[in-house]
Design a protein that fits this description.
CATH topology of chain B: MetI-like fold
InterPro entries (chain C): Peptide/Ni-bd, SBP_5, SBP_5_dom
Number of strands of chain C: 23
Shape of chain C: globular
CATH architecture of chain B: Orthogonal Bundle
Helix content of chain C: 25-40%
Oligomer: heterotrimer
Protein name (chain C): Peptide ABC transporter substrate-binding protein
CATH architecture of the largest domain in chain C: Roll
Shape of chain B: globular
Family (chain C): Belongs to the bacterial solute-binding protein 5 family.
Distance between the termini of chain C: 18 Å
Structural class of chain C: alpha+beta
CATH superfamily of chain B: MetI-like
CATH superfamily of the largest domain in chain C: Dipeptide-binding Protein, Domain 3
Number of domains of chain C: 3
Keywords (chain C): Signal, Transport
Order of helices and strands of chain B: HHHHHHHHHHHHH
Structural class of chain B: mainly alpha
Largest sheet of chain C: 6 strands, mixed
Radius of gyration of chain B: 25 Å
GO molecular function (chain C): peptide transmembrane transporter activity
């Protein structure tokens, strides 16, 4: 598992949309968006692109590409193309649930920390506690308690991201709170919570956007690693991670089985990474 | 300094206590129990009851928790349930193996990333700069468990240069240990090396774009000299920060890598412990990991406060 | 040697996931040949009383433990008592418990007195390893293993390896040929395979059928299948759930599964399709019974209809490991074709074991069972899924208990009368289908080109007395 932490240089506020758009309109941004868009589109159109049921088994196991199965079949005679396309869908749903959930939880805790000194202490120790367990060990623990499945995977990804989002925002809040406009608002009689939500939060949100793109790529890896350890989404539902780890045994004999989901995973991770980098450059100016 | 330590130490201890409670509770929440696991598939209820009594699992949970805390505080961790041997010995061996792996990987991260970044930065806008970027991006985009299997396929099975998996201690047989270490360390190092290379290259490029560099170029200073004497020292500090962050990632990544290469480190030990419900091993090990993290945090804070007196006042 | 699962010292005296250690460090009293006829090991000869109430054993007189102490009748007495101890959780404890008294006729001459005749006495002698009594507690803690076997235990690195050195004073002259053995624990299937391919590992019994299939064409390996019947794949039904209480529903499940495809795709072809637990070597085996249920979805649907079941939705527990997941997915698909929706529930092995013992399995589960490779009665009194007194399925019937007890409580095991009883056991199993047998996989030995002469006993204990590395 790889986690990128983007060191963020707090910049003065400029029109938000422009900076994000400017970042995304570089070659990095465009190619990142194109990669993610292409993969997501393939996942969305899975039922149209492949007529085969991803879970329908057949007598032809480990067959090569043919008219009926454009990418061949897996060890149980299931259509590989259909499984990869549906796998994209599963992965995207998982990370698009888990990452926002982690971001919201992390942000909520960070804001809570901004309300009082005691809350700040508690929240910081909480982040410490989660961070002190290396990601996959957290995964082992959570899935051991809950049993493997889709929701445990979502929880593991979300939980692993909470402290990253939380710490980024907390740092941003600390900086922004002392800025003149925030002080002015407070002197002007605005309540502490109001200042936090209306004035400080919007200005501290930039690093979260970047962290979000990073977290999406990390989510794909965590899903894969959990599948590899046998703790992922329950079979027979295809995921990119389970497809890859199931194919590893056939690398010599049927390389396409691993190559197809691997290519898609790489494109997805690459896309998210490029988007994160372009956004980071954009907000940094 | 002392007052700073006095302020931070209690919060570290709070995290540790909370962690001990969380770990203890989590293990009890996992379905299945050590006695049935130990008793084997065809055990009678009498056998299971006997084992429960021997392990002290028939006591109330609170008593078990306090007993465990007592063991930790006295440093006598006792025997493991299922894996066999003393917990302290198992954990010690695990730490030694994981430390070897992560340190070797860390070394590889630096050895791989710095030249790539320097090459990339000195390439400027030449086409192979793009190729280098593609390479580092590629290393980022492939999950480690695939890299691992591919490495084994190429270097062990096809070329027969290195063993496919296994472990030898550096202390016992250094030459053998290095052979065993090579592939897992490489597999673990690749993603982090890619990240570091990208940061460093970014930093170098930014430094090269500064005004003083343009002036120096205009004055006829060679590009290489500028890179080494001016850009690198400027870009290095933030790269070191990134490297520091990657250490944690290496330890986490070791779980998968240890599995692929049959490397008997901490990741394998936790996995084994959870799978066999070996409570003492998992409890003590996780607590130790948390303690390690807390200590590192404390030391970092201490170093910052030493460097920046303003923090001390906080 | 490559093993996938580490040795669990506490299960030394039970049938566990790793039984490679037992016959390296220890010996047993007797050993079965291919026809289930006992052959001498530490016992040089034996005589079962005509009434089946006692057995007299003559022991080898030239055997010493690795500690240097001489092996005598007292060690056999201890070994039996050790298995009677519930803490050892030995599967053949029920048989060991029938030994009520020991008559010592000399240092190397011992009579075991039995409470009643048992047909699987020699299963016990095949199973029971003779350990040095003084070191037994160290043995189950994993620190010291002292036996009379061909190798002495030298070192264990938990989670990594076990090392053994040649026993210079082994009673079998000139044996073993090997200077030492190292068992490596390699949890990841692909790594185990690579380790064999690179010649780092010479021999393994832990390669999954699916992976063996990828080695079949590779000339560097010799692949041997053992008819130990140690792993029979089955679907269990928990009769506490009303959905599966009707035996027609369970029979429908038995007809619904395409066992041939299961063996071919999920087990790599390394198993034999069978509707009964017995392997071919068992006296209870009959071909027509093994073929009793074949793939017939129409018949399955008809039975479900008869039972008044339209759509059925059932959970199926399976082990979370990749091989079992493949088996479970095949079952799920086949059952769906006859209108039974199955939700897969992957669980790890401690959870599975707890549910197995606590009789708290979901309505359906799939696992593999052992113990059918021996005398048929052993299965029904020692293997938990089939145990007549208490089994995971919560199945009980006076008829089953009666026929099992009659098959077990007799001195002979091969006579026509015994075989008729086994047939009755089989008939009950085929009719009731609380355990739906699917396929029997023996242990598969994958040996590198140099490894020769390794054998297994009926419990899968690895015997390397005659093993050597060629050229």
């Amino acid at each position: 598992m790889t986690v990128l932490s983007v060191p963020f240089a707090g910049a003065l506020r400029r029109p938000v949309r422009n900076r994000y758009v400017a970042g995304l309109l570089t070659w990095r941004g465009v190619s990142g968006l194109a990669l993610v868009g292409l993969v997501a589109l393939a996942g969305l159109l899975a039922p149209v692109l492949s007529g085969a049921d991803p879970n329908a088994q057949g007598p032809e196991a480990l067959a090569g590409p043919s008219g009926a199965h454009p990418l061949g079949t897996d060890d149980l005679g299931r259509d590989l193309l259909s499984r990869v396309l549906h796998g994209i869908g599963t992965d995207l749903t998982i990370i698009l649930t888990a990452v926002p959930a982690g971001a919201v939880a992390g942000a909520a805790l960070a804001l809570l920390a901004g309300t009082s000194r005691a809350a700040d202490l508690v929240v910081q120790r909480l982040f410490d506690l989660v961070l002190s367990f290396p990601g996959l060990i957290l995964g082992l623990a959570v899935t051991a308690v809950l049993g493997p499945g889709r929701w445990p995977v979502v929880i593991v990804i979300a939980l692993a991201e909470v402290p990253y989002f939380g710490r980024q925002l907390r740092a941003g809040v600390l900086v922004q709170r002392e800025r003149e406009y925030a002080l002015a608002a407070r002197v002007g009689g605005a309540g502490r919570a109001r200042v936090l939500l209306r004035h400080v939060l919007p200005n501290a949100v930039d690093p979260l956007v970047v962290q979000g793109a990073v977290a999406l790529s990390v989510g794909v890896f965590i899903e894969g690693a959990l599948s590899f350890l046998g703790l992922g989404v329950r079979p027979p539902e295809p995921t990119l991670g389970s497809l890859i780890s199931g194919a590893v045994a056939y690398l010599d004999t049927a390389p396409l089985l691993a190559a197809a989901p691997l290519g898609v995973t790489a494109a997805l991770v690459l896309g998210f990474t490029l988007i994160a980098e372009s956004l980071n450059r954009g907000v940094r100016g | 300094m002392r007052s700073f330590l006095l302020k931070r130490l209690p919060s570290g201890l709070v995290v540790l206590l909370a962690a001990s409670f969380a770990v203890f509770l989590m293990l009890r929440l996992i379905p299945g129990d050590p006695a049935t696991t130990l008793a084997g598939p065809d055990a009678s209820p009498a056998a299971i009851a006997a084992i429960r009594a021997r392990l002290g699992l028939d006591e109330p949970l609170a008593a078990q928790y306090l007993h465990w805390l007592g063991q930790v505080l006295t440093g006598d961790l006792g025997p493991s349930y299922a894996i066999g041997g003393q917990v302290s010995g198992l954990i010690g061996d695990g730490i030694a193996a994981t430390a070897q792996l992560t340190l070797a990987a860390l070394l590889l991260v630096v050895v791989l990333a710095v030249p790539v970044a320097l090459l990339g930065a000195s390439a400027g806008r030449r086409p192979w700069a793009g190729a280098l970027r593609a390479l580092t991006t590629g290393a980022l985009a492939v999950p480690p468990f695939v890299t691992g299997v591919l490495l084994v396929g190429v270097f062990a099975v096809s070329l027969r240069l290195l063993p496919a998996g296994g472990y030898a201690s550096l202390g016992d047989a250094p030459d053998l240990a290095v052979q065993y270490l090579a592939l897992p360390a490489l597999c673990l190092a690749l993603p982090s090396a890619a990240i570091l290379a990208r940061y460093l290259q970014d930093g170098l490029e930014r430094a090269l774009a500064e005004d003083y560099v343009r002036t120096a170029t205009a004055l006829g200073v060679s590009r290489r000299r500028i890179l080494w004497r001016h850009a690198l020292p400027n870009a290095l500090p933030s790269a070191v920060t990134v490297l520091g962050l990657q250490v944690g990632q290496l330890v986490a990544g070791a779980v998968v890598v240890e599995r692929i290469f049959a490397w008997p480190g901490l990741g394998q030990l936790v996995e084994q412990g959870v799978q066999r419900r070996d409570y003492p091993v998992v409890q003590d090990l996780l607590l130790l990991v948390v303690a390690g993290y807390v200590t590192v945090q404390l030391l970092t804070d201490l170093a910052y406060s030493w460097l920046d007196p303003r923090v001390r006042a906080l | 040697m490559g093993a996938q699962i580490d040795f669990t010292p506490a299960l030394l005296f039970a049938q566990s996931a790793n039984v490679l250690v037992q016959r390296l460090v220890f010996n047993t009293l007797t050993r079965y040949d291919d026809q289930l006829r006992p052959q001498p090991e530490l016992a040089s000869s034996w005589e079962v009383a005509p009434d089946g109430l006692s057995v007299r054993l003559k022991l080898r007189e030239d055997v010493t433990f690795h500690s240097g102490r001489r092996f005598t009748a007292d060690d056999v007495v201890f070994a039996v008592k050790n298995l009677q101890n519930p803490v050892r959780s030995a599967q053949l404890r029920s048989t060991a418990l029938t030994v009520t008294d020991f008559r010592r006729n000399g240092d190397f001459d011992l009579t075991l007195v039995l409470a009643h005749p048992v047909s699987n006495l020699f299963d016990l002698f095949e199973f029971m390893i003779i350990a040095d009594p003084a070191s037994v507690e160290d043995a189950v803690a994993g620190t010291r293993l002292i036996g009379t076997g061909p190798f002495t235990f030298t070192d264990r690195k938990p989670g990594s390896s076990l090392s053994f050195a040649r026993n210079e004073k082994y009673w079998n002259p000139g044996r073993p040929y090997l200077d030492g053995v190292e068992i490596k624990v390699i949890p990841q299937a692909e790594t185990l395979l690579s380790s064999l391919k690179t010649g780092q590992t010479h021999l393994s019994y832990a390669v999954r059928g699916k992976d063996v299939a990828t080695l079949r064409s590779d000339r560097r390996f010799r692949i041997t299948q053992y008819d130990t019947g140690s792993g029979a794949f089955y679907i269990g039904a928990n009769l506490a759930y009303p959905e599966v209480q009707d035996r027609r529903v369970r029979q429908a499940i038995a007809w619904a599964i395409d066992r041939d495809r299961l063996v071919e795709q999920a087990l790599g072809g390394y198993a034999t399709v069978s509707a009964v637990p017995w392997p071919k070597s068992s006296p209870a085996y009959r071909e027509q019974d093994a073929a009793h249920y074949r793939h017939d979805p129409a018949k399955a649907r008809e039975l479900l209809k008869e039972a008044g079941v339209g759509q059925l939705s059932l959970p199926l527990a399976h082990s979370a490991e990749a091989g079992s997941a493949a088996v479970a997915q095949v079952l799920q698909y086949d059952l769906k074709q006859v209108g039974i929706d199955v939700q897969l529930q992957p669980v790890d092995s401690p959870t599975m074991q707890k549910q197995l013992i606590a009789q708290s399995m979901p309505a359906l589960w799939t696992l593999s069972h052992g113990f059918a490779q021996l005398h048929p009665a052993t299965l029904a009194v020692s293997a938990y899924p089939f145990n007549e007194a208490k089994n995971t399925s919560r199945f009980s019937s006076p008829a089953y208990t009666d026929v099992v007890q009659r098959a077990w409580n007799r001195a002979d095991s091969d006579s026509p009368a015994a075989k008729a009883l086994y047939q009755q056991v089989t008939d009950v199993l085929l009719e009731e289908q609380f355990i739906i047998d699917l396929a029997i996989a023996g242990l598969v030995e994958v040996a590198g080109e140099r490894a020769r002469g390794a054998t297994l006993n009926k419990f899968g204990y690895l015997n390397l007395d005659d093993a050597y590395l060629a050229g």
